Amino acid sequence: MDRFYWDSFSTFFRIGAFTIGGGYAMIPLIESEVVERHKWVKREEFLDIIAIAQSCPGVFAINMSVFIGYRLRKLPGALCAALGTALPSFVIILLIAMFFANFQDNPVVESIFKGIRPAVVALIAAPTFSLAKSAHITLVNCWIPIVSAIAIWLMGVNPIVIILIAALGGFLYGKLVKPTES
C-alpha cells in the first residue's frame, strides 16, 4: 500500500490535534508540513489551495486537506487527508461534550479559556501577515482588504458582494491595466 496514505493521515491528524484556533491558525502548520517538509505542493499552489478552500463552503482546514489529498491521490487521498484533519476535532469535541458540564463553572477552567483567547488571535494574525506577503499585498494595495473588512464589519455589506466586486476589479485590472504595464 502507498505510504502516502499513512503520511497524509498522520500529518493532518497531528495538525488537527494540536492546533487551537481553527483553520486559519492551521495555515502555517499545513504550509510547513505540505510545502516544506513533504514537498507535496509548491508554495504558489499552496496559495491557490488556500484561496479555493476559503471560497468553498465547509470547514476551511478540511477543505484544504481535501484539495491537497485529491491533488496527490484523487478520491482516496482526499478521504484520507480529510479524515486525518477531522478525527481529532471530533474526538476532542466529543470528550468536551461528555465532561464540560461538570467543569464549566470551575474558575481554573474559566481562566484557561480566558488565557487561550489572546493566543488564538495571535495564531490567526501570524498567517494573515505571512499570506499578505506571499500574495504581494504591499502598502500600495493594502487598502483593498482594509476597505473590504470595514465594508463588511461596519457597513454590513454582504461578503458575497465584496467577492463579486473584487472578482470584477481583478478581471478589469487584468484586461485593461496589466497589459499596458508590460
**Low-pLDDT regions:** none
Work out the strand percent: under 5%
Rough outline: globular
Gyration radius, in Å: 19 Å
Strand segment count? 0
The major β-sheet equals: none
What is the CA-CA span between the terminal residues?
A: 49 Å
Q: What is the string of helix and strand elements?
A: HHHHHHH
Number of helices: 7
- Class by alpha and beta content: mainly alpha
Fraction of residues in helix: over 70%
Helices and strands in order:
Elements: H1 3-18, H2 23-37, H3 43-55, H4 60-103, H5 107-134, H6 143-153, H7 159-181
Helix pairs in contact: 1-2, 1-4, 2-4, 2-5, 3-4
What does this structure look like?
It is a single chain. By secondary structure, the chain is an all-alpha fold. Helix content is 82%, strand content 0%. The chain contains 7 helices and no strands. The longest helix has 44 residues, at 60-103. The N and C termini lie far apart (49 Å). The mean pLDDT is 87.
Primary descriptors:
7 helices; 82% helix
Kindly summarize this structure in a few lines.
With 182 residues, the chain is mostly helical. The chain contains 7 helices and no strands.
